[in-house]
Amino acid sequence: MKISHKEAKTILTPSKLPGADYVVNPYSGCAFGCVYCYADFTRKFTGHMEDKWGEYVDIKINTPEIFEKELSKLTKKIVKKNEFKKGDKPVIFFGSVTDPYQGVEAKYELTRKCLEIIAKSDIRNDIKISLLTKSPLVARDIVIFKQIPNLEIGMTITSIDDEVSKMFESCAPSSSLRIKALNELNKEGINTYAFVGPLLPHFVANEKSLNILFMKIKESGTNKVWVEHINLKGKKMGRLIELVGENLSKEEYELFVNSQTDEYKNRLNEIIMKIIKKYDLELVGGKVIDHIKLEK
Ligand code: SF4
Questions:
Q1: What domain range is 275 assigned to?
Q2: Domains in the chain, number
Q3: Which of 52, 99, 167, 228 to mutate to test the pocket of ligand 1 (most atoms within 8 A of CB)?
Q4: Which one of 107, 157, 206, 255 is at 20 to 30 Å from 164 when CA atoms are compared?
């Protein structure tokens, strides 16, 4: 793993992502190296075109200082200029193109330091914080989460089978550890959601395992879910098949190849809606999201 220290020019970046007005990414690259990751496009903006996604992480070492300054500018916009409508709290989303609680966070604590700044800021009541991770390290910061009024923590869970997770998310913590972390957060009264995305193609032929996945989420105490179809456009399909193809049965392989068709997505939508109803979960947006285009 190639770890470098970098100086960031900006950290609190305006965003057009659904549900996010600003994004914060204290690291560039991601050591979890999921084979389907959509954030690998950032290699071309960070001088890593020659590096394989998942094999480098840049530590934006000045993150807390820059974040504090930018949060103070945002405070002026909210309080003095009144740029946001009353009651319309801007959302700051951590982890749009990296995992904010990947391994290096245990040492550098950049995500934690930003959250501490928020917890002490004058505008903590006027903003919303959302954070998405695959790491149980997130539970380390429960004490700080409790000091931030409008905060929710998302945990990405794409399978309950640790072998499947290992195949697609080889360096990420196992699904069972993620469910355990959700449990812990829920017990401590933290608002949580589960991000079930991308929907792995074998699920359309394996309704039972999809059912168990949502059941485990519900049992963890989480009631809100985002669900997203897999996007294998461009070179993604070839890359994914190259990486995991030999582990797929003939049927699973066919499903991968057909996973971008409307017929496939409609079939999966029907299954998901049935399960959501069964476990009485809140599906964000009321439907399975097709694909969110990421920004830096
Ligand atoms: S954890 Fe998220 S950002 Fe990191 S490689 Fe996986 S999908 Fe990409």
A1: 2-286
A2: 1
A3: 99
A4: 107
Domain assignment of residue 292, yes or no? no
CA dihedral 239, 241, 245, 249 (to 10 degrees): 160
pLDDT > 70 fraction of the chain, expressed in percent and rounded:
94
Residue 226 pLDDT greater than 80, yes or no = yes
Provide the token pair at 143. 């004490």
* C-alpha span between 218 and 209 (Å, rounded): 14
- Which residue, 37, 78, 71, 73, is CA-closest to 55? 37
Encoded tokens for 220: 């963890």
Q: Residue 77: pLDDT band by 50, 70, 90 thresholds?
A: confident
Residue 295 lies in a domain: no
> Does any domain span residue 70?
yes
37 lines ligand 1 (CB under 6 A): yes
Query: Per-residue pLDDT averaged across 65-86, rounded?
Result: 82
Atom of ligand 1 nearest to the CA of 54: 5
Segment among 91-105, 154-168, 226-240 with least mean pLDDT: 226-240
What strand order describes the sheet that includes 128-133? 13-14, 22-24, 91-94, 128-133, 151-156, 191-196, 224-227, 282-283
The rounded distance, in Å, linking the Cα atoms of 79 and 91 is: 15
99 belongs to a structural domain: yes
pTM for the structure as a whole: 0.93
Query: Rounded mean pLDDT of 204-214?
Result: 86
* CATH number, residue 187: 3.80.30.30
The whole-angstrom separation of Cα 227 and Cα 96 is 16
Q: Which amino acid is at 79?
A: V
